[in-house]
């Protein structure tokens, strides 16, 4: 080999080594870059989820009153800390910055009756108006899974209005339109859809509502229930838009889950059955819709009941009914948006409150014979 060839060979070797080194460096840089991006995304995503969670009520289903004292001269930081210590809010810092962002002020000292189901808006309103626990004239508790007529009866037992007057107000077009003007994102045109029985069915949130006047108007009694629904549903609007699901469909599906669920039920699995059936173009065949169509409560749905001629009858009609059949709690709203990933097409509630999920009609009938037919 000549001296020139030897030099060329050495040059090529050095060039290859540099290329290898450059390649390794690029890989290292790329790896570091990807790791940083993932870490940054995780930090941002985690921060967003934490703040989103902190803005929500501690426990929407816990209406138990908690005595909270706000001393005279308390700063926003002090009030935030007191609320966190009493488990009324999740994070004092988030609450403090929320107040600053909203430019809220004028909080009053006193002894308050608050609960873990309250939203930031409700807490701030009470603290600003100085509504002390002794100021409550009466309270109305609306449980989950109640229909419009049942809610009218509950209100009538607490306030000076008959059930007929309450139903008349809840079905009054002028009142409904006034509520739509205040809560347009919640009360959409869908509530007036074809075959919808009651426009406001499912839109009166289950919670305990304090009233500070002995004789409030019906509007003053009913609006907080609609407002509460609006506040709860607003949390899920981004997800609804992402999934291209209307608010009305969301509220309707949540009401079906609420009606079918037992205390032991896994609502996410019940939700998955409804999603799977809709995807396979199968009727939902859920008994509560038949009872709603019949307009009565029964311990057991008979075969003849399944023939009721109604758009709400999900044995005769595919897809969701025209509207909600009751009011749903937050856990049913969550399930309506987050069904578990399953292959289940059937479920059966036993008399003990357990819910058995199956994939085929044959499996379902076997469980039915075991737990229902032979009982």
UniProtKB/TrEMBL annotation:
Record-level GO cellular component terms: plasma membrane
CDD domains on file: MltG_like (cd08010)
The species this protein was found in: Metabacillus litoralis
Function comment: Functions as a peptidoglycan terminase that cleaves nascent peptidoglycan strands endolytically to terminate their elongation.
InterPro entries: MLTG-like
Family, similarity comment: Belongs to the transglycosylase MltG family.
Alphabetic keyword roster: Cell membrane, Cell wall biogenesis/degradation, Lyase, Membrane, Transmembrane, Transmembrane helix
GO biological process: cell wall organization; peptidoglycan biosynthetic process
Localization of this protein: Cell membrane
Name assigned to this protein: Endolytic murein transglycosylase
GO molecular function: lytic endotransglycosylase activity
Pfam families, sorted: YceG (PF02618)
Matches recorded under HAMAP family: MltG
Its EC number(s): 4.2.2.29
Annotated site, Important for catalytic activity, chain positions: 260
Major subcellular location class: membrane
Keyword Transmembrane helix: yes
Lipid bilayer topology: Single-pass membrane protein
TM helices/strands, residue ranges: 28-51
Gene field: mltG
Catalytic reaction(s) noted: a peptidoglycan chain = a peptidoglycan chain with N-acetyl-1,6-anhydromuramyl-[peptide] at the reducing end + a peptidoglycan chain with N-acetylglucosamine at the non-reducing end
């Amino acid at each position: 080999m000549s001296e020139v060839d030897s030099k060329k060979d050495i040059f090529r070797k050095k060039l290859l080594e540099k290329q290898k080194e450059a390649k390794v460096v690029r890989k290292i840089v790329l790896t570091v870059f990807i790791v940083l991006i993932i870490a940054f995304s995780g930090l941002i995503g985690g921060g967003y989820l934490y703040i989103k969670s902190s803005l929500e009520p501690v426990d929407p289903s816990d209406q138990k009153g908690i005595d909270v004292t706000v001393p005279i001269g308390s700063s926003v930081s002090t009030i935030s800390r007191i609320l966190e210590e009493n488990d009324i809010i999740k994070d004092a810092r988030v609450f403090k910055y929320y107040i600053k962002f909203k430019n809220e002020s004028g909080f009053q000292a006193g002894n308050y009756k608050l609960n873990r189901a309250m939203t930031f808006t409700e807490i701030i309103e009470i603290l600003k108006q100085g509504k002390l626990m002794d100021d409550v004239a009466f309270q109305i508790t609306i449980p989950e899974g109640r229909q419009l007529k049942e809610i009218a009866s509950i209100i009538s037992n607490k306030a000076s209005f008959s059930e007929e007057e309450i139903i008349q107000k809840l079905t009054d077009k002028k009142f409904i339109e006034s509520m739509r003007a205040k809560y347009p994102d919640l009360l959409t045109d869908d509530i007036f859809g074809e075959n919808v029985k009651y426009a406001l069915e499912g839109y009166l949130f289950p919670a305990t509502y304090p009233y500070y006047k002995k004789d409030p108007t019906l509007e003053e009694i009913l609006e907080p229930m609609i407002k509460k629904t609006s506040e709860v549903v607003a949390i899920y609007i981004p997800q609804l838009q992402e999934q291209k699901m209307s608010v009305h469909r969301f509220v309707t599906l949540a009401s079906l889950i609420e009606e079918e669920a037992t205390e032991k039920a896994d609502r996410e699995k019940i939700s998955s059955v409804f999603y799977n059936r809709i995807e396979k173009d199968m009727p939902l065949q859920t008994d509560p819709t038949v009872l709603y169509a019949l307009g009565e409560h029964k311990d057991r749905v008979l075969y003849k009941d399944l023939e009721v001629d109604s758009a709400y009858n999900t044995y005769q009609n595919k897809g969701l009914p025209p509207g909600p059949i009751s009011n749903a709690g937050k856990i049913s709203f969550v399930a309506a948006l987050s069904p578990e990933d399953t292959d289940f097409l059937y479920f059966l509630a036993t008399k003990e409150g357990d819910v058995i999920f199956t994939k085929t009609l044959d499996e379902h009938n076997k469980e039915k014979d075991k737990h229902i037919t032979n009982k």
